[in-house]
Structures are given as structure tokens and as C-alpha cells.
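tool=predict chain=A
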Amino acid sequence: MKEMVVTWLAVTVVLLVIMIGNVLARGLSKVTEGSISADVLLVLVAVQSISLLVTLIPLGLYLGILLAHGRFYRDNEMTVMQATGSSWMDLLRPTAIVGLMGVLLIAGLTLFASPWAARYEQLIKNEVKEKSAINLISPGKFIESSDGSTVLFVKGVTADKSQFNEVFMYRKQDKTPPIIDTARIASHQVNSETGDEYLIFSDGQTSIGNPGDAGYTITEFKRQGVLRPKTELGEPRLQRRSKTLKQLLESDDLVDLAEVQWRISIPLAALLLALLAVPLSYTSPREGRFGKIAIAILIYIPYANLLVLARKWIANGTISPWIGLWPVHIAVLLLVIYLLIKRVGWSWFRSSQKVAV
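tool=predict ok
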């Protein structure tokens, strides 16, 4: 059990580091674009890591047990254990215990931790949308507001972001002509009483309308203030993966029912994969402990893809929620039984039944 747990944790950590690297790379690109600020990047990565563990822990458990048993075969420890009277049931029992540990951990993640992380991530993203675009300004970058009505560009900015140099602002509201403001310098001010934000331009000009139109005007100014409009985002719509299990069960929506099936299936899949790894891990001493990794991955990929496909079929109404994802799990269970029979033969099952009687 210690060998399996240590290998399981090592594989999971390696997979998690790889996936976090991808998430971090996407987040850094959003920071450079000005979509999010650098101070919330690590928080988002940490929150998304919880959701990543939901799929990485079953895969890590599967490969961990496979590698641990593969080492037993490579070092002939499995042969010695079986020669001294250890049966296949003696090997399945500790593996099932480790698998149950994984099931409990994944169940806690899928039912509680992952929905909470999704809600927290949604809250952070909503706060980023409400946050002033002034805080996201980077010199030489075009910053667009969340509703697309304003585009801001500055050539230079002070360290405390209190003053900007060579400023360009484009504003466009519905049924109104576009407005372009340019100024030599600008500063950001906030009304302490109302919370209104202003961008104060100095030494610039404002053009209203499109060049060539009859109403096109250009106005030069010494000082001009522009109010940043407040956008009422309202209460954010709760995403499916953010809902609690109780909210999903109370819903009649097929998408929510598919999510319920998915959350139940992930812990069950972890247990089936743990049991599948036992007969699949058999290797001769010359093959090495990594001999069955390719076969294990070739089994895992269709299993995971079929679960995702069946989930979409439930959401689309193609199959009944009562059928759900169970046919996929039953197929894997039959594969486990087939591999065990192929490895030890029917005699082991008959002898096990006699002992049970």
C-alpha cells in the first residue's frame, strides 16, 4: 500500500505541474493583453488547480498502481509473494483499499471542493470585470473595456499610475457618434463620496463623429474631464460546474442531470481504474515496470472520452438520464473481470467460491 500511495502521489504531482504550467502560460498571456492584473493571476491558478485535480487524481491513481505492481513483477517480489501463499485476493484487497482512499478523496473534490473553486473563480473574474481599466494599463498596450465601448492607449505611465503621457481614448455608445480624445498628459481621479472615476485630460483635443460627416467637430482644450461610465453587471449567472449537488438534484434540466452523473462517475471510474491496473500490470522480468504504460493509456483514453460523450448525450436528450454513464462503467468492469480470468483462469474463481462457502 505504501508503494502504491507514494507512486500515485508522485505521478499526480508530475501531471499537476505540467497542467499548471499550461494554465500559467495562458494566464500570463492575458496579463500581457491587459485582461487581468498580475495580482490575481496566482489566485486564479490556485483555484483552477483544484478543478484539475478532479481528473488528474484518477489518472495518477491508475498509473501509480500500475507502476507499483510493475516494479513488484520486475524485481520478482510478486513471484515470491505468490509462492509463499499470497493469492490474487490478497493482492486485490490492499489495491482496493488504496482505490477506496482515492474514491473518498475524489468524491470530496467533485462534490464540495471543485464546485466551491468554480464559484470562487467566477467571483474573481466578475470582480476583474468591475475593476477599473485604469489599473490594468500598460504602456504601449491598447486596453479595451469589458463592454467594448472604450479603448484606451497610453505611451508612458508613472510608477503609481497617477499620470499618463501621450493618451488616446476612443469612446462609442449606442446611437451616438464615436468620440476620440487625445492629450499630452492625463491623470486618474476618484470622487471619494460617490466613487465616480474620472480621467482628466490636459493639453489635447476631442473629435466627435466621423471625418467627412456634416456634424464632425474637433475641439481643442486645456483641461477636460471624462467620466468613466459604470456598468451594472448584476448577479452573475451560476455556471453548471459551480452548482452544489443539492441544486443539481433539484433541477429538471438535462444539463444539470448530466452534471450529477458526471460527479458520481469520476469517483467510480477511479475505483474501476485501480482494479483494472492489477491484472494489467503483469509483466515478465525482462519487460520492465513501464512495459504496460502504453496499453494502459490506450484503455484510459477511450474510457474517458466515452464518459464525456455519454455526458453530452444526456445533456442533449439523446439517452435517458436513467441509463446515464452506467454502460461505460459496466464495460470497464467486464474488462477487469476478463483480464483477471485470463490471468488466473476460472479455477481461481471456483476455488474462491468454495472458500467463501
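DSSP finds nine helices and six strands in the chain. The longest helix spans residues 88-130.
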